[in-house]
């Protein structure tokens, strides 16, 4: 059986860096794959950045970056509220037993 490549640790990049990479890809003088190799990035990440830039510019359908951020925030809030409701249900059940 073949050996698996060790996983690269997750890296984070500034929006300015991502925009610069997208700009290089959109110029057309280098392919997405070549830009990814030149900057030691994964081709998938670069393609995702280009795709998201197209959505943000209105050139492609999908959720814009601000919509994605809002959706993530709403999901976090929804999860927190569900946890709060669960705690209140358990507290109600506890106090209902105590008053009998």
Count of individual beta strands: 0
Mean pLDDT over all positions: 93
Could you give the distance between the termini?
66 Å
The largest sheet is: none
The helix count comes to 4
Principal-axis shape? elongated
Order of helices and strands: HHHH
Portion in strands: under 5%
Low-confidence stretches: none
> Helicity range of the residues?
55-70%
| Structural class based on helices, strands and sheet pairing | mainly alpha
Q: How do you describe this structure in short?
A:
With 100 residues, the protein is mostly helical. The chain has 4 helices and no strands.
Structure description:
The protein has four helices and no strands. It has about 100 residues and is mostly helical. The protein is elongated and about 80 Å long.
């Amino acid at each position: 059986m073949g050996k698996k490549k060790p996983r690269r640790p997750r890296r984070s990049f500034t929006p300015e860096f991502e925009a610069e990479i997208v700009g290089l890809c959109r110029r057309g003088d280098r392919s997405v794959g070549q830009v990814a190799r030149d900057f030691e990035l994964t081709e998938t990440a670069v393609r995702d950045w280009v795709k998201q830039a197209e959505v943000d510019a209105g050139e492609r359908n999908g959720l814009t970056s601000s919509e994605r951020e809002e959706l993530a925030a709403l999901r976090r809030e929804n999860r927190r509220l569900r946890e709060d409701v669960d705690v209140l249900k358990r507290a109600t059940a506890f106090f209902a037993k105590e008053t009998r």
